[in-house]
Amino acid sequence: MILPLLHMLITVHMAHGTMEGFVIQGNKTHIRHYPHSVYLNIICTRITYICGGSILNQRVVLTAGHCLEDCTGKYRDEVYLKYGHENPSQMGSTQMKRFIMHERYDGNSLDNDIALVSGKRNIPLGKTVRRIAIFRSPPRQRLAYMAGWGVMNYRNDVALTLLDTVQEMQPNKVCKLLGTMPRGTFCAGSIKGPGNPDRGDSGSALVVKKYVQIGLVSYKVDHYSLVVYTNVSYFYSWIRNNAHKLYCSRS
């Protein structure tokens, strides 16, 4: 079963089934170590949930497509981009202006699970708010790092502060345990055990060398701790072209 890593803040059903009690068990960290991190407070189709994202520039945030698939405009949709602190109650904030989901996004298979969001106001850059870097050919590393505000323990409590975890990059032979994965994805993390992204971490950046984003959290599968990440270098041209559209948009 495909399990997107959304976390609902009210009792609702999930489009892709009920998640098991996966555990992040990450370490508390400071936003200075992950200044690109964005907390998305999403209220769409009368459902409230959280996702993660990363700052591409002062106007545009990168996240997962499934984080925004309920934002159809049928109801009064609201998305708040929060930044600059590890504690959500002390963050700066701007409301969403527009978003672009990949035109070939599939909510069942999670193909092309990527989206961009622009804020109504510029995100002020500083020591605790910085842009992420993406490359067409990023450096290869054995270990990568992810931070988010997802589930933090066996009781499925939402983290009230930023947590981080180390993810081991896995070869294709290990990723095959998860079945057929969408194009433009890879897997990372441990096969079994704690220390992996969980609900509320959808869209959060996987980084190497502190500031280079190589992936974003997409989903995990029943019975494994491995996480499937959207490969941002695979979507480099899409990100660049659509981020430019959002940044320059006046409407």
Automatic annotation (TrEMBL):
The keyword Zinc belongs to this UniProt entry's keyword annotation: no
Signal peptide: 1-17
Keyword Protease: yes
InterPro entries: Peptidase_S1_PA, Peptidase_S1_PA_chymotrypsin, Peptidase_S1A, Ser/Thr_Proteases_Immune/Dev, Trypsin_dom, TRYPSIN_HIS, TRYPSIN_SER
Assigned keywords, A-Z: Disulfide bond, Fibrinolytic toxin, Hemostasis impairing toxin, Hydrolase, Protease, Serine protease, Signal, Toxin
Domain of life assignment: Eukaryota
First-listed, main subcellular location of the protein, grouped into a coarse class: secreted
Cell location: Secreted, Extracellular space
Classification via SUPFAM superfamilies: Trypsin-like serine proteases
GO molecular function, one term: serine-type peptidase activity
Pfam families associated with the record: Trypsin
Ranges where the Peptidase S1 domain occurs: 23-244
Cellular component aspect of the GO annotation: extracellular region
GO biological process per UniProt: proteolysis
Role this protein plays: Fibrinolytic activity; shows preferential cleavage of Arg-Gly bonds in all three fibrinogen chains. Contact with the caterpillars causes severe bleeding, due the anticoagulant effect of the protein.
Family: Belongs to the peptidase S1 family. CLIP subfamily.
Protein name in UniProt: Peptidase S1 domain-containing protein
Organism: Loxostege sticticalis
Organism lineage: Eukaryota, Metazoa, Ecdysozoa, Arthropoda, Hexapoda
